[in-house]
Amino acid sequence: MAYDFDLFVIGAGSGGVRAARIAAGHGARVAIAEEYRYGGTCVIRGCVPKKLFVYASHFAEDFEDAAAYGWTVPRPSFDWPTLVTNKDREIDRLNGIYIKLLEGAGVRRFDGRAVLRDGQTVEVAGQTFGAERILIATGGAPSMPEIPGIEHAISSNEAFHLEHLPEHITVVGGGYIAVEFAGIFHGLGCRVTQLYRRDQILRGFDWDVRTHLGAELLKKGIDLRFEANVTAVEPRGDGYRLTLTDGASLDTGLVMYGTGRHPNTADMGLERAGVELDENGAVVVDDWSQTSAGNIHAVGDVTNRVNLTPVAIMEGHAYADTVFGGTPRRPDHRDVPAAVFSQPGVGTVGLTEQEARQRHDVIDIYKSTFRPMKHTLSGRDEQSLMKLIVDAATDRVVGCHVVGPDAAEIVQGIGIALKCNATKAQFDATVGIHPTAAEELVTMRTKWTPPEAQAAE
What we know:
FAD/NAD(P)-binding domain, Enolase-like, domain 1, 3 domains, 32% helix, globular
């Protein structure tokens, strides 16, 4: 059977674009469809604009700290529209780069929503195409709860395009999105209340990271409330009145939900094409990113494996090399570094302490808290955390967790060490760079002893 394309990619985010470009480079006839803008969640409405906002929000503390270093800074003022305009200009630039990369690789673009008519037929904007293989790379979208008045709340998508900043914003959620935006809005001058229905933020992260960051956010002045949630949102004057789970009410200028994301799989015809979805709507794939329909694969957040942009890129590249490049390889999801661009930031790679205790008979813990050197003059009450988790049987470092300035930059390098199965002895043999925070990771020598064990000694 003759097909219009060897590969049709649905979704032009980071994973889809990478797969399309690499497959085209291997000689495949490739098409890609995108219903919004090129670059996906990360570039358009996720990690890139978010980190630009993080930079902007952190200047408030930088201006304050400058005085301790001899700088006299006039009282600064902030203009939200300027930040939004400059952010939009950068996103436009990146969108154009993604389009040029695809065109340069010879990938044919279709602007519009793509749906599957069957396992090898794609429809876009009234046109149908036959494809020998199809790749689903449609990413995810913010999840909003079904409560009265939820239509008055915003998600992270809308947060990037607000006409003005409210005096008071309430952020609902305790994951990385909620934590990051709470810090952004606080740094830009808003009064911030953050509500989380559980007992500590960042579920799934190492417990020391969670408790340490939670304490730091409270010190900064974020009104962080645990075991609290919203049951209704009601317009009230220039803002909203939130009804909470304990029956109390909270008045706020704006409410933003950062309560997770769900895969973009609705109304795509996936079931019609024989693609299995799990109970959350994610595409079910095997280790090779193959779905239950043999010629259809899926990569990125739509599979709900490790929902990070570099992981989607890795999966897309591995798919193209395997199917079109003659070099089969599975994406490796072990020891994937990750960051939370909170304030202070978080960097993590490998196992949490709880995971390590479940997988290894005996583990050794090394951890340290200290004031960042910058704040020895500024006097700011902020503490960094460094933590290493070691498998006692092999001496291999199986986890590293950092909270503090430049945490993500530090952990990127440590991620290489964990990928190479580095041991604690090799960390110890590495000369530190002084004075830096990162040197703490190669100078910690004393094993941490739990308080109950200390009392028994």
